[in-house]
Amino acid sequence: MEVPKKIESKQLENLNQRIEDILLKEPQTEIECVAFIENANIIVKDAQALNLEGTKEVLRLQGYIAFIYCDLGKYDITEKKIYDILGAIRQQKLEHLEARCSLLLSAIYFEQGKFDETIKIGTKGIELYLKLKKPQNLAALFNNVAGAYLELGHYERALSFYYQALENSKQYGDATILGTISYNIIHCLLLQKRYDIVEKEFERFKRRIADNDQDKNMLVWLYISYCEFYYKTTNTKKTLEYAEKLRVLSKETKGHLHIVYAAWHNARIKNKLKFHKEAFVFALRILEYSLKSKSITKKLLAYLAIGSILCDDAENQDYYWKQSRLLDEFEGETIRVLKKAERLVEELNFTDKKIYVYNLLEKFYVQNKDFEKAYVYSVKTRQIEAYIYDIEKNDLVFRLQEEFNVQENQRKIDFQEQLLVHQKEINASLEFFAYRASHDMREPLKNIYSFAKILQNEREQVGEEDYKEILGFIIDCSNRLLVLTKDLLEYSRLGRIVSSTKIVPLKNIIQAVKSNLSEQINEVNAILKLEEEMPMIYVHESLLIQLFQNLISNALKFRNKDIQTIIEVSFFQEKDTVTYFVKDNGIGIEENKLKRIFEPFARLHHRKAYEGSGIGLTSCQKIVEQYGGQIWAESTIEKGSSFYFTFPNNQEEKTNENINCK
Predict the structure, then answer these.
(1) Which of 157, 211, 348, 621 might form a disulfide with 149, Cβ 3.0–4.6 angstroms?
(2) pTM, rounded to two decimals
(3) How buried is residue 341: exposed, middle or buried, by Cβ count under 10 Å (0-12/13-18/19+)?
(4) 166: β partners
């Protein structure tokens, strides 16, 4: 908002400073909250007098006032305060304030039983906080949305949001919200009767409390959880024990909600044990707090507790009506309490509480021998149970879909991570490959250039013999370049083979290689030894020919000239793989150089001694790895070398997958 020129900057600075000062300390007690609201309202009025009520800082203060009203349970005032400023917030695109307003409204709507609105405004708030990358309040929003789904009977959806709230609260939330969410998860699981998971959640809950130095707020929610668990599993002794622990601890924490829950659980268990008059004291406590905070949900709990006691101890009804003036509106009639509870539960649409109320009404009408009306409420109960059953079926599908989505997302994440690692490896390999390729090509090109310059500049001085020698050098360097570029081209094509994959007898492959290398084999009188029985293999035929041809030609090239060359081609089979090997009795490789031989352009000998581009074994490695295998060498100097490589046994599936995605 633009500040009018007549407002001096000093007044604006003073106003902003007052706002900063009042927001420094968060009020804790009810007295502090009331004092804060009074002082904050004075600042807002001063801002209005200066025509500054629409500035960002003043809107922030008004939002905080609404937050304090909400904390005090003044939901009507909170809602009004929010809608008074929401238009200005949206107009100025103050998304962080709008997100906070969504948090407050979702809490109010939940308290008022407007669950569809809770989900709608809560989801909007979640989107805003995620967009702003400010996750600190996400736990509360996830919790509100989950609570709305819970009360509508969508337990699986509720659990999904509760667990998201839990993850967020562990990182950014305080102990209070962490305790509330932990309880809500257990409460939801109890409604589903998933007691095996509940036991595990209790252990996790206790670990969280230990991690938070036995925080008392969290302990309250743990005791509430135990009260519900033991009540549902009909362990009255344990229920009574934890209800008492809860009562004592709630007096220490002084939280309104803690006191109400303590009263509710004590009222329920004491009524069940037929300590009706003691139970009634707790029921009245809930009613007092509900009227004080104007909370509809607390009022419903009070009516349920009072109605239960009046139904279970009908003989002493006169006693109960005399205990408090708060009951005068019911004119001494139990049915008025139960009908009020029915109206509230249907207004709030609390699914599980509907069953509670309908059971009480059925019980009341049976006691009064009005079986026709009792039957009506019996049918209503069955209808709600059928409704919950239908929702549970749909939620089961939802849960399975959620689990599938989680697994699918994790699979995609894993794939992306693997792809990233693979890409880094490829980039590093390409960088090294490019360096070595340029190095190996530079030398013959440099020589060609030098010799050509001699012929160009000193042609007349160069004799016939020198001329022929220089031409020989140029031709030799050119041939080396041709071989190198040919090998580079073949290597680059390895990842883009498009020929068909098929089942081929390995013996046919070796025979093809033998035919291709017949001249070299005959020239040195080498012996090529093969197994009688060779396996079938599912491959691109040309690739496997290239693989074996490279290995066998290397064995011929690096032969021991003092003995007859013997090359053995064989295999052995293990559980998951087939290992093939090419073994020779050549000159061998030094052990410390075995790792280098598969690097591009690696040369262990001078070019004059052994020709070649240094890409042959690199190509072998690339072919083997395309099929998901490994290649390695073992060698002893003057005794020969053995090259091993593996192919998976279940080749037919993996070969298609690996080759096609290259």
Answers:
(1) 157
(2) 0.56
(3) buried
(4) none
